[in-house]
Write a structure and sequence with these properties.
Layout lengths: L1 H45 L1 H112 L11
């Protein structure tokens, strides 16, 4: 039995050794493949064709990015122009409204001034008529007073028609 156990252990050792060798070979192969791939990639990247291709792609992407930036700037410029145009239109509308309000105010002032002048003229005409009426009344009173005075004088002269003497009779 001991011989069988030894043979089993020997067999297990050979298996482990074979597994370890296989694992070592696999790791070495993977390292060689990785190294070869890296070398080929480095060589490919260093080649002029790949460099030219990379340069071309970079230029295309740069041009595309520049076109996008220019398009965005153009959109922003147009938006700013639209905002400015709207601001100017609003300002013009506001100025027009202010002009209209000023014209309306001037029309109202003119109408009020004309009304005031008409009222003033009407008041002046009324006062003038009152003064004329007073003057007529005063003139009429003077005439009446003059006529009354004339009548009084005439009456006085008729009552006093007898001559007055400066001496006494009697």
């Amino acid at each position: 039995m001991e011989a069988k156990a030894r043979a089993l252990r020997l067999e297990e050792r050979r298996k482990k050794l074979a597994d370890l060798e296989a694992q070592l070979i696999e790791e070495e192969s993977a390292a060689r493949v990785t190294s070869e791939v890296e070398a080929r990639v480095a060589a490919a990247l260093a080649s002029e064709a790949v460099q030219a291709s990379l340069q071309r792609r970079l230029e295309e992407e740069r041009a595309q990015l520049e076109a996008q930036v220019n398009a965005e700037l153009e959109r922003e410029r147009q938006a700013a122009e639209a905002v400015e145009r709207e601001r100017r239109q609003a300002l013009e509308a506001q100025k027009a409204e202010l002009r209209k309000l000023e014209e309306d105010r001037q029309v109202a002032e003119t109408a009020a001034r004309e009304r005031a002048e008409q009222e003033e003229q009407a008041e002046a005409a009324r006062r003038f008529q009152e003064l004329q009426a007073k003057m007529r009344e005063a003139e009429e009173r003077r005439r009446q007073e003059a006529a009354a005075e004339k009548e009084r004088r005439a009456a006085k002269t008729t009552t006093a028609a007898r001559p007055k003497f400066s001496f006494k009779l009697g």
